[in-house]
Amino acid sequence: MASNEMKLLGAWPSPFVLRARIALNIKSVEYEFMEENVLVTKSDLLLKSNPVYKKIPVLIHGERPICESLIIVQYVDEVWASGPAILPSDPYDRAVARFWAVYLDDKWFPSLTAILMSDGEEAKKTALEQAIQGLDLLEEAFTKCSKGQNFFGGDKIGYLDIALGSFLGWVRVIQIMANVSLIDESKTPNLFKWAQDFSGHDAVKDVLPETDKLVEFSKFLVAKVKGSGTK
Question: A Gene Ontology molecular-function term (predicted)?
Answer without folding.
Answer: glutathione transferase activity
